[in-house]
Amino acid sequence: MHNKFSRRNFLQLSGLGLAATALTSDPLSVADNFFKPKHAGIQLWSVRDDMNKNAAGTLQALAKMGYKEVEPFGYDPATGKIFGLPFADFAKMVKSNGMKIHSSHNSFGLSDYNPSTKMLSDRAKKVIDAAASIGQKYIINAYMNDTDRKKIPEMVKVMEAAGMYARKAGLRFGYHNHDFEFTTKGSDGRMLYEALLQDIDPKLLTFEMDIYWVVFAGQNPVDWFNKYPGRFELCHAKDMSAADKHPSIEFGDGTIDFKTIFANRSKAGLKYFIIELENYLTTPMLGAEKSLMNFKALKV
Known about the structure:
Elements: H1 7-10, E1 39-43, H2 48-53, H3 55-65, E2 69-71, E3 81-82, E4 85-86, H4 87-96, E5 103-106, E6 113-114, E7 119-120, H5 122-133, E8 138-141, H6 146-149, H7 152-168, E9 172-176, H8 192-199, E10 206-210, H9 211-216, H10 221-227, E11 234-237, E12 239-240, E13 248-249, H11 258-263, H12 265-268, E14 272-275, H13 284-297
Parallel strand pairs: 1-2, 1-14, 5-8, 8-9, 9-10, 10-11, 11-14
Antiparallel strand pairs: 3-4, 6-7, 12-13
């Protein structure tokens, strides 16, 4: 999510009927069947205008809503800043509000890799190093541009290099999808998403499944969990409106069967659940609050 791009451009059902089984050994399972994962947060793109206007006040408001984790975007390695603040200061601000940063979004593309030397660019290294410096667990590649997605074998090399560098820094490198990963195909006929899952060592790449975009592409998230178990350590929980063109909507107010999807969280390998909003019926902050309320009310 680079500031000069829109979310779409920068980063630019159902039912298997499987019931959730309450197992006391599963830390996500509880006696009353309410969905209470250990890690639940919000992608700050959801409240981007508020963050750019008043980062301190917005973080404080999110904490009061009950958010315990945030996923930032837009760190600029050239300035060392995010939301106009030095990255270390931003991290301290998050911590002072009782919240944590486990993952963040940035971009990694063909321009970040030298195929001759098999080395990452200094820009990419700085992004990963910054994430490691504040104790993050993940750094997520948030989007693949039009040119890069047409060169799948080359992008596999970029992701491998980033994954290796991140691993040495103590991080997990991840990839966040949109819908084009399911419509873009290589010369061998495989979907882009399949190529990333099949061609890159799981030790070097995990996935942050954006559930909305998977469903928007006509795919069933559970099918992917079954085919590639344990590969999806994070997800974006974003719902889909029944309205024309199916825009995203506040979590719990849409048509996506999150109950069935999250009942299969163990098979997916899901550990981190991150609410995201791109469209709003009211305001971003009210949408963030309602989404969290609905998320906490979900029974699985």
